[in-house]
Amino acid sequence: xxxxxxxxxxxxxxxxxRPRAGEDADLFAVLREQAGNRTAQVTAAGxxxxxxxxxxxxxxxxxxxxxxxxxxxxxxxxxFDVVNVPTLFGRRMLEHLWADGPGxxxxxxxxxxxxxxxxxxTAQRLPSLLDWEEWGAGPGGRPGRxxxxxxxxxxxxxxxxxxxxxDAVTVPPLTCGPxxxxxxxxxxxxxxxxxxxxxxxxxxxxxxxxxxxxxxxPRISIFPPLDQGAKVYDVSRRR
Length: 239
What we know:
Strand 3 and strand 4 form a beta hairpin. The chain has helices at 27-36, 44-51, 57-66, 87-99, 122-132, 199-212; strands at 72-75, 81-86, 107-110, 113-118, 161-163, 168-171, 184-187. The longest helix has 14 residues, at 199-212. By secondary structure, the chain is α+β, with helices and mostly antiparallel strands. The strands form two sheets. A five-stranded antiparallel β-sheet has the order 5-2-4-3-7. A two-stranded antiparallel ribbon has the order 1-6. The chain contains six helices and seven strands; from the N terminus they run H-H-H-E-E-H-E-E-H-E-E-E-H. It is elongated.
């Protein structure tokens, strides 16, 4: 599982000399300094991994170096896929992944959703696995049974947004404060080769969350059940 840990293997970008006193430190030097203070969201190696998803990694790193506190946009399908879930459901998925499963890859939060970085190909396979196991969306892409089981059919996984080849996602800034609004890292990338869950792992987590939701309590009425065969008379009109 990736975490916010100092990275001591890749401390600066490129093979050039380190900045001298009075010069602006490059992006990796900033990340290294913040990692030493245990406030970094992304380590130097994690930034290199993220940039590797872009068509031009060096240009992406240069752009981040100029604007380290600005969000970025990266394509999916080559280095990673992204599974976009509601925040509450995603939080429960992470609890199961960390407590009972193998952990998680990088995770970000954006606009009330949680972005789980997964292995390439997950965006295509996960919806099919959910449908095969009858946990996915209903006909026409509509949600199946309610995730809380309020429709009487049992719990169901809410519709997931899976981003794969041909899609792009917004990634949080590499450096940001705890009070910064907008996208932010919950589990930041910290190595050049982070472990990423596949569709089978995320399927397991989705099913565990759906099954762990308690069933709604049956409604208890103080009135006797209605006699379906009883005749009903209109007594509103009197002679």
